[in-house]
Amino acid sequence: MKAVILVGGFGTRLRPLTFTCPKPLVPFCNIPIVVHQIEALVKVGVKEIILAVNVNPEAMAQFIKECEKKYGIAIHFSLETEPMGTAGPLALARAHLTKDKEPFFMFNSDVICEYPLSDFLKFHKAHGGEGTVMVTEVKDPSKYGVVISEPNGQIKSFVEKPQTFVSNKINAGIYLFETSILDRVEMRPTSIEREIFPKMAADQKLYSMVLPGYWMDIGQPRDYIAGTVLHLGSIRQHHAKHLASGEHISGNVLIHETARIGKNCLLGPDVVIGPGVVIDDGVRIKRSVILEGSRVHSHAYVSNSIVGWKSSIGSWARVADSSLGEDVVVSKEVSLHDSVVCPHKGVGDDVLSHKILL
């Protein structure tokens, strides 16, 4: 089987992390985002993956070689000379996808969930249609385009941001298609949601399956944090032994084995500590991610924030509701609130309201 992952471009929504790291390689709970998807695909029998990118595939080339060797699969780049939307990449990948008549998966690269792909594949084969859309239930459907389906999953229509309730199910960005969908896709920028799916629904060949468990699009910092909370909850439910425990731990905390934690700290709930991170004595961290090689000095406080690679949070500093890029230095006793700090910057004075530090 095969799969297409829509990687896209510069990852601008996830800045400042993507200033120095391609979005698919940004760690999510200490594993690159794209590896969560690759591992799920490998488990269901996928042997060939196409990464649809429109900028700088060279930045991922070595990593992809390592993944091919580790997982025993082939990974190809499909390079767009212009942004091709969400359907155009299928036309570019036609030669790979039509080597046989097997159905293929397609993912949006920002989506994180428990990936029940085996059940997804069984459902798709059972209904005999041309495509299946994974949908997820939301509390406020007025913010989204919703999917309206028959009880058997056959999609009737799509409604953009409904003001009266018609459905609470939205497109989760995970698909399974027969190769015949390629006959619908031209070699031009195309939206699969707006141009292809309505035609498939009109032909009664598009179905939906409700995604069990959690779902999040982690393409921007606040949703990356929210997704981390949900994923840690999933780890607690299915693999609790991977989470930290002890007097210094509150709730769900994931600590890389190479990190060092000082005395009298309190970590959690909902904290991820990356490889080689040093947490000094008396530190308080909650609902935050500390990426590889960073150091949080004694008695600092970090809340609802992402601390980028090789950054330093000074003693008695307070960082809240902020996103720090790579190699950021927050001086001791500084308060940083509601801010975005670009890579290689120093913060020497308090920032108490929203600010982007370039």
Walk me through what this model shows.
The protein is of the alpha/beta class. The protein is built from seven helices and 31 strands. The chain has a seven-stranded mixed sheet with strand order 5-4-1-6-11-8-12. A seven-stranded parallel sheet has the order 14-17-20-23-26-29-31, with helices on one face. A hairpin with a 2-residue loop joins strand 2 and strand 3. The longest helix has 18 residues. The radius of gyration is 22 Å and the shape is elongated. The mean pLDDT is 90.
Give the structure's gist in a few sentences.
With 358 residues, this protein is of the alpha/beta class.
Provide key terms for this protein.
358 residues; single chain; elongated; alpha/beta; seven-stranded parallel β-sheet; seven-stranded mixed β-sheet; 7 helices; 31 strands
